[in-house]
Amino acid sequence: MAICISLVMSLSSKVALADDSTFMYYGFEPDIITNYLSTGKKVGFVRVTIELMAQGETNLKIIQHHAPLLRAALVDVLGRQPEDRVKSLAGREEIRKLCFNTVNQLLKKETGQELATELLFTKYIYH
């Protein structure tokens, strides 16, 4: 009987370990749409689909809980970008890194941990 209980406990701890080592994604829905700083008379906008990668379901749930705060910060970051940065490939990567750092800074302030392991733009449209 003791061997059976030990085996069940061993298997359940391995399942829990596998769950926390799995990378999961949180997608902000709907897409983030905001104006950016344009140089001409025309108003420019950017539409971005953002996915955050986190390790384990627990971290994903924490990110999901803080999603409204993170979304507001992402809108702010995107809205402060100049037109030339929004429209260039190198600029897009700079913006992505800035968004990633902003998200992790906020998560660290709120939870004490940087929970996002990556931030991806899965759609990036500007006009």
UniProtKB/TrEMBL annotation:
Q: Where does the record locate the signal sequence feature? A: 1-18
Compartments where found: Cell inner membrane; Cell membrane
According to Swiss-Prot or TrEMBL, what is its membrane topology? Single-pass membrane protein
Major place of residence: membrane
User: Has UniProt tagged this entry with the keyword Transmembrane?
Assistant: yes
The record's keywords, sorted A to Z, are: Cell inner membrane, Cell membrane, Cell projection, Chemotaxis, Cilium, Flagellar rotation, Flagellum, Membrane, Signal, Transmembrane, Transmembrane helix
User: What is the superkingdom listed in this entry's lineage?
Assistant: Bacteria
Q: Does the keyword ATP-binding apply?
A: no
Q: Which PANTHER family match?
A: FLAGELLAR PROTEIN FLIL
The job of this chain, per UniProt, is described as: Controls the rotational direction of flagella during chemotaxis.
> Which family does the record claim for this protein?
Belongs to the FliL family.
The protein in question is named: Flagellar protein FliL
Organism in which the protein naturally occurs: Corallincola spongiicola
